[in-house]
Amino acid sequence: MNTDDTTKPWGALAPVGAARVLLLLKQWGLARGSAKKHLGRLWSRMGLGTPVDIRYAGLKFRVHPFDNTVENKMLFGSKLRDEQELSQMRRAVAGGGVFLDIGANIGYYALMAAHFGAGRVLAFEPNPRVYARLRFNIAANTLENRVKPLQMALGAEAATMTLIVTERDMGGSRIGNDGGEAGSAISVEVAPLSKVLQDGQIDRVDALKIDVEGMEDAVLFPFFETSPRSLWPRLLIIEHTSQQSWKRDILSWMLDSGYREIERNRSNAMLELNP
Could you tell me which residues come within 8 angstroms of residue 15 by beta carbon, excluding any fewer than 6 positions away? Predict the structure, then answer.
């Protein structure tokens, strides 16, 4: 089975039989490095069903491992995803903080923020199929009162733009007009982050995570240039692996404008706003 069906309640697609046995290997810590790829290949060769309902880091998720890298790693990897980032985020949002998840995918960061005590979470995801998964995972954890999904992208101004959907990795979809896989271009709503926050009457941001496939500068520069410093996120987690696609170096600008880098790994830089 390979479907985006969200009509079945969470738990209806729980792993059974051979699938359950394979996931025990993961729970025992054996699926690390190349081993997790072998686990995924074995799952596929055995014809085991997907999507599948799992508990991950204390939360409920329905994961689709063969068209989204994030979901694949959640299902088949023994290592907790983004431990450094989660540690910093927990500190920033505990006790009712405001968290923004820009490029939310299926909601891993958004749901973890709520799990850590955030009182208000906005999760931005423009891809309709992934957005449906995001909404399902929010509902599965009964967090609708704290996590608000928004089916939109962010940019300099209100507009309709093209999203290139990468069928092999839904999380790699990107705003652009440079082609892509046949039939994968769709129109999506774009809005400025500052306007979204104004409409939502949000006057502070405790933490923000952004992963938008090389468009981080296009989202953040308009926000910083039109928003008071009091609205700037205290903690900002930014993916830097697509830095070569930036038209302006947003990371250097932030470091020159009052942020300091507190941690970095091969995927993300974590910055804190100086008092």
Answer: 22, 23, 48, 52, 53, 54
Answer yes or no: do 110 and 178 share one domain. yes
- Domain extent at residue 70: 18-76
The domain boundary, picked from 76, 99, 125, lies at 76
Q: What is the pLDDT of residues 33-54, one digit of tens each?
A: 778 888 999 999 999 989 999 9
pLDDT at 4 over 80: no
Do 175 and 200 belong to one domain? yes
Q: Which two tokens stand for residue 34?
A: 């190349």
CB neighbourhood size of 44 (10 A):
12
Of the candidate ranges 26-40, 100-114, 186-200, 253-267, the one whose mean pLDDT is the lowest: 26-40
pLDDT of residue 182 exceeding 60, the answer is: no
211 and 238 both lie in a single domain: yes
Q: What is the Cβ-side half-sphere exposure of residue 67, based on CA atoms within 13 angstroms? A: 15
